[in-house]
Amino acid sequence: AERNMIDIFGIDVTSRSRAENDLRESARKLDMTLSVARIIPWRWDLKNHKIACEVQRVLSHMNFTKQQGSTHSVHIIEESEYFQRIHPQDVARVKQIHANFLNGKLQYTKAEFRIVSKKGEGEHVDWLEINAAVAQCDSDGMPTALIGSLLLITERKKQEQALVAARERAKESDRLKSAFLANMSHEIRTPLNAIVGFSNLLTTTDDEEQKQQFVGIIENNNQLLLQLINDVLDLAKVESNTLDFNYQPTDLNELMRTVENTVRLRVQPGVVLNFTLGAGDCFVQTEPNRLSQVLINLLTNACKFTSKGCITFGYELRESDIYFFVRDTGVGISREGQTRVFERFTKLNDFAQGTGLGLSICKSIVEKMEGRIGVESQGEGKGSLFWFTVPFLAVAIEEKNSLAIDIQKEDIKQEDITILVAEDNESNYLLFQSILNTKYKLIHAWDGREAVELYKEHKPQIIIMDINMPNMDGYEATREIRKFSNSVPIIAVTAYAFASDKERIMKNGFNSYVSKPLNANKLIQELKTVLNSSFTLV
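^ that's the sequence the OP posted. Answer follows.
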């Protein structure tokens, strides 16, 4: 009988299985690479005007409409919708590339453009880099399909734009630096030319009236040069964020009166200077030195540009702010000028004395004090109103005891007053000698240690103490002298004029201070103030 037979045979598929596994692993790695790199592969059917993309590659927020034929793994997009979503500034360029492919002018291209997607109530813009090549042609050799990839480069474009902006800022900074150096050269040389020139002329004339005229010109240019140096130093402190602010209880009305006295001499002939107070008494917690600096700067500008009419300044108390203003009937400021007047190195009048730094420094100071600053003007020739605000922080001032004990003053003749001058620079001492020698007896100490010894020997009525000296500086010498006398008036002489330096001086045993460069009138006035508080001249 026939037996049923089954033939069994085997094929070794190990190699094929390994190949399939390797292929799957390669596909997985490619898929991972595309995902990490945010690359979107696509195929563009030029005849049917459809674009096929892998579903998982299309960013969800792009929300392209799925056309007929789409599957769970392939997203088909209508060509017209794709063009509609391209940024208006890029769409003409992308359409031209598309036309060049259709006409056979292009076989490959690489370009960048933006896709705009609706996101909530706003729009989201993605930067894409496209790589495209012809994948298929008809019998006439004209392209019928394209293949390529889209790469998301939004972050890269942001970095590029940041680098471009940084480069532009660097170029602008370099331009401003060059303009600043050129301006500084002019502004420094102008007063120096007058100082040097008229100093030489002083030695060639015997006419007293002409001498006084020359001295006045020199003094005026000295002040201009000093203001220039102060502005540059303040700018350096603003740049390094080390501008000092020392808040303290301040009589605002007294501050306004002091500012008025400081500025009055700068007003042009025929111009009236007025100030208004916002309250009968006003004590606030503020930074008086910086407040004065801003007011004086604004008033100095008003004086400079107002040749007739009046200048009015003052303050108003508001709910949470103090509003300060400086109003003038001067040359006014154009609309365009008002937009840049607070920028650094800006000078609206190139022929007016100044650095173009003052208003910029004022802006920095006011903003540091948590305030605002601005300007209003109807235009050129119609005057200006500069204003700024600072927080209103009221403080209570204790009434002074009316039964305070009167200080007993010592009777003395002026010719018997001896002043000890501690100064290590010979030229500076000669200046003191020229100012004071006709009215007082002078003793000279070359450093702080000698000043202590000469004080113990001569017991002078007043001491003028330079801060920076060899062997023993002014601070240490004053501390030593205070061990022997708490009452002798000591006036500090400092090359620094910042608020922190002033505060340190007053906290270290000094009665007052004068700053370099020395002003003869200010020094004499300071001496009179100290003398009147300690002595009665007979």
